[in-house]
Design a protein that fits this description.
It is a single chain. The model has no long low-confidence stretch (mean pLDDT 91). The longest helix is centred in the middle third of the chain and has 35 residues. Strand 15 and strand 16 form a beta hairpin. The protein is built from 11 helices and 16 strands. It is an alpha+beta fold. Helix 1 packs across helix 4, helix 6 packs antiparallel against helix 7 and helix 7 packs across helix 10.
C-alpha cells in the first residue's frame, strides 16, 4: 500500500528563513517557466514548450543565478517544473472535455507553499532510525531540521515534501510497501447515509451529529475578515498590520481544517473498527454545490427572475463544511489498511424509495426528517431509510461481484 505521513517540523529561526527563501526561489522558477510557455504560445510560430525542454535549461539557470537557484536541489526544481506541466495537462484535458478550462496562473509567494523532493536521498534525507526521538530531515541548502515524529514510519520512503501552513512547517513523506494491519472480523455490515442535519446516519439507526466547524466559528471569522477588508487594496502586502490581519484569517481557517480532519479520522476509525463491510452513496459533491443558473426575465430586458441562489448558497456552504469527499477518502484508506471493504452505490432516490415495498416517489419524503410511503404507509426517519437502501444496494453489488 501507499501511505503518506505528515509531521510537524521544528526549524530554528535561521532555518525558517531559509525555508521561506526556498519557497520563494521555487515560486520564481515556476512563474518564469509559466511565462516562457505563455510567450511561446503567443509567438506567431505557436512554439510548443514542454517539460523536457525547460528541464534541460535548469543547468544554465543554476549557473546564471547561483545565489538563488544554484543553492537548491536539482531534483526539487525538476519537481516544480513537473508541477507546472501537470497544470497544463489538466488545462488541455478540460478543454478537450468541454469543461471550464482554467488556464494556469502565476503564483504569489504567499500561495506557493510546497516543495517536493522526488527521491529520498536526492537533495533530502529522511532519518530512518526507528526509535530515535531526535528525528531529523536533511534538506540541501538548509541542513538538518528537527521533526516531531508522533508515530513510526512504515514502508519505504519515496518522496519528501516540505509544506508551509501559516507559520508552521510540515514534512510529508510518501511511502510505498506499507504493510496492512488487518483487524479481526466482526461479521457486521452497515450502510451510511451522508447529510447536513446529521453528518451521517447508519442503517442501524444511529445518528452522528454534524459538528459544523465553519458555522461555529463564523462570527470570529467574519470579524477577522472585516478587519482585513479595511485595508486599502493599494496598501495591501505593504504594512505590518495588514500581514497580521491576513495571518489571523488564515489561522482561523487552518484551525477549522484541523478540527474537521480530526473529526473525520475519528468517525472513520469507529466505522472501520466495528464493521467488515461499509456501504455509502457515490456522491458528486462538485455538482451538488454548483450555483443555480440565472433566469433571465423575458418581459424586462436586463432583469433576472429569482432563482433561489441565496438559499442554495447556504446549502452549498453546509455541504462543503461537512467535507463529505475528504471523509469518504479517509474512510477508504483506513478500510484498505484494516482489510475492510467499502462499497459505493448509486445515490439516486435512496431517500425516496420505500425499503418495505420498493415504491419510489418524490412524495414519500414528507419533510427533511420524515419518510412516509404513499403506497404502503411505511413510516420511518428519512435518513435511516436512505442508509437502509444504501445497504440493500450494496448487497446487490456484492452479489454481482461474487
Amino acid at each position: 500500500m501507499i501511505r503518506a505521513y505528515k509531521f510537524l517540523l521544528r526549524p530554528t529561526a535561521r532555518q525558517a528563513v531559509a525555508l521561506g527563501e526556498m519557497l520563494r526561489d521555487h515560486c520564481s522558477l515556476y512563474n518564469g517557466a509559466l511565462q516562457e510557455r505563455r510567450d511561446a504560445y503567443r509567438h506567431t510560430s505557436k512554439t510548443t514548450v514542454r517539460y523536457g525542454g525547460q528541464s534541460a535549461q535548469l543547468k544554465e539557470i543554476r549557473a546564471f543565478d547561483p545565489e538563488r537557484q544554484g543553492r537548491w536541489s536539482f531534483s526539487s526544481q525538476q519537481a516544480t517544473l513537473r508541477r507546472l506541466d501537470k497544470a497544463f495537462q489538466a488545462f488541455f484535458r478540460r478543454v478537450t472535455a468541454g469543461l471550464t478550462p482554467g488556464y494556469p496562473r502565476f503564483k504569489g509567494v504567499g500561495h506557493f507553499d510546497t516543495v517536493t523532493f522526488s527521491k529520498d536521498g536526492d537533495g533530502c534525507r529522511w532519518d530512518s532510525t526507528p526509535h530515535d526521538p531526535q528525528t531529523r530531515v536533511r534538506l540541501q541548502g538548509i541542513g538538518h531540521i528537527r521533526v516531531h515524529r508522533h508515530r513510526p514510519v512504515k514502508g519505504r520512503v519515496k518522496t519528501v515534501s516540505v509544506k508551509r501552513e501559516g507559520r508552521r512547517w510540515y514534512v510529508v513523506l510518501s511511502c510505498d510497501d506499507v504493510p496492512a494491519e488487518p483487524l479481526p472480523p466482526t461479521g457486521a455490515v452497515v450502510g451510511v447515509d451522508m447529510g447536513v442535519t446529521h453528518f451521517l446516519t447508519t442503517s442501524g439507526g444511529e445518528h452522528v451529529a454534524n459538528p459544523r466547524f465553519l458555522a461555529a466559528m463564523a462570527g470570529e471569522l467574519a470579524e477577522a475578515q472585516r478587519h482585513l477588508a479595511r485595508f486599502p487594496k493599494r496598501a495591501r502586502q505593504r504594512t505590518k498590520k495588514h500581514r497580521a490581519a491576513a495571518r489571523k484569517v488564515a489561522k482561523l481557517h487552518a484551525r477549522i481544517r484541523r478540527q474537521r480532519a480530526d473529526f473525520h479520522h475519528k468517525t472513520a476509525r469507529t466505522l472501520v473498527t466495528d464493521h467488515d463491510v461499509i456501504a455509502h452513496e457515490r456522491l458528486n459533491t462538485a455538482g451538488m454545490t454548483k450555483s443555480p443558473a440565472p433566469k433571465a426575465d423575458t418581459e424586462q430586458l436586463g432583469s433576472f427572475l429569482p432563482n433561489g441562489a441565496a438559499a442554495k448558497a447556504g446549502l452549498n456552504r453546509s455541504i462543503l463544511d461537512a467535507g463529505w469527499t475528504q471523509f469518504l477518502t479517509i474512510l477508504a484508506n483506513k478500510a484498505e489498511s484494516a482489510g475492510r471493504f467499502v462499497v459505493a452505490v448509486d445515490a439516486r432516490n435512496t431517500s425516496r424509495t420505500c425499503p418495505s415495498c420498493g415504491h419510489t416517489a418524490k412524495e414519500n419524503r414528507v419533510t427533511q426528517a420524515k419518510f412516509q410511503c404513499t403506497a404502503c404507509r411505511y413510516t420511518a426517519n428519512a435518513d435511516h431509510v436512505g442508509a437502509t437502501n444504501v445497504l440493500n444496494r450494496a448487497g446487490l453489488v456484492l452479489c454481482d461481484v461474487a
